[in-house]
Amino acid sequence: MDIFVARQPVFTAQKKLWGYELLFRLGFKNAFPDIDGDVATSNVLANTFFSFEIKEILGNKPGLINFTKELILQKTPLLFPQQHFIIEVLENIEPDHEILLALKEFHEKGFKIALDDFVYHEKFTPMMEMCDIIKFDLMATPLETLTGIVKDIRSNYSITLLAEKVETYEEFELAKEMGFDLFQGYFFSRPEILSKKEISSSQITKLKLINEVGKKELDIKKIESLIKKDVSVSFKLLKFINSAYFARPTPINTIKDAITYLGMEELRKFINIIAVSDLSESKPNELIRSSVIRARLCEQFGTVFKTHFTTEELFTLGLFSVMDAMLDIKMKDVLKNITFSEKIKDGLLGKDKEFKKILKIVVSLERGEWDNNFYTLIAGKSIEKKLPQFYLDAIQMVNSFLS
What we know:
Low-confidence stretches: 29-45
Number of domains: 2
Domain HDOD: 199-386
Organism: Desulfobacula toluolica (strain DSM 7467 / Tol2)
Largest sheet: 8 strands, mixed, barrel
Keywords: Hydrolase
GO molecular function, one term: hydrolase activity
Strand order of the largest sheet: 1-2-3-4-5-6-7-8
Strand content: 5-15%
Protein name: Signal transduction protein, diguanylate phosphoesterase and phosphohydrolase domains
CATH topology of the largest domain: Hypothetical protein af1432
CATH architecture of the largest domain: Orthogonal Bundle
Number of helices: 19
Radius of gyration: 23 Å
Mean pLDDT: 81
Structural class: alpha/beta
């Protein structure tokens, strides 16, 4: 059984990562897997989730999973460890007697329950009395219509309110003011300030380091000297080179040996990633992690697509594709401070059709948007089976770089 998973981050009001919503598919033709009432099938599904290293995907964070009416009535959530998963009840599930009995059992056994795309109505009162989280879809129910509802829920229940499909920084700020606790959407990957903003001196220093590793011929001694002068980069390099990602039998103890072991291309990746993470200290950590996952996925797609970019160039493009959001300035102004080739600049500015295609596919993977025509075209082909491993490999890579 081939399973693919995408994860969408959920943030606190302080823009700290709270957890993920996990989206599962059996290939790209299905929605949530079509499971009959056979208990054995549910067991296969559960076992497959765990063989796919879901704990690694979640880290120590909770995961929200959509459960259909059929899966709730089959008691499928009981197959999962309650400390890792939150049962997300879909919006089309009515609070009939059987559903309420199942939810009561989950609640009594310590499971947390979330109501998805909630529409406030008194018939849902029994559900609300057992739930821990209510999710409001801001596309379906705009914030201006929720003021009274939010106040009423706050007055009568101890429930965490989650605003999903938060598309802009303004929506994020307004939802915070209204009393929402958690936030899900794409606001964090866009610039928060659209007006011109200057780059700080410390950020310029990091950009100079990026420029140094961007040269065709690397000056290893100069790079080694720059790394040694930065305690943070030195520490992160040695931590990374001795991580489980490389599975080295003996540790590496010097910057020089670490650089030699990595090689030129891996050194470029490392410096770019660490510099990017330092450039975005005021941003959600997930934005940094997302940029690394995007970079690795772009690189991997370079092995299956015919493109005029090298895989190394695709890694760079993916990594820097969110730089405008990290620095809160327009991409064209970011590129004034980095010595990239015209080919890379065109890709980052959206002028290159090949990279636009690859980036669109990668972004749809990030967001669990399976209606991209690409997935219809690859159905049943070998590349479809590669994508879950591509994604897991990217998560493993970011865990090694940024853990």
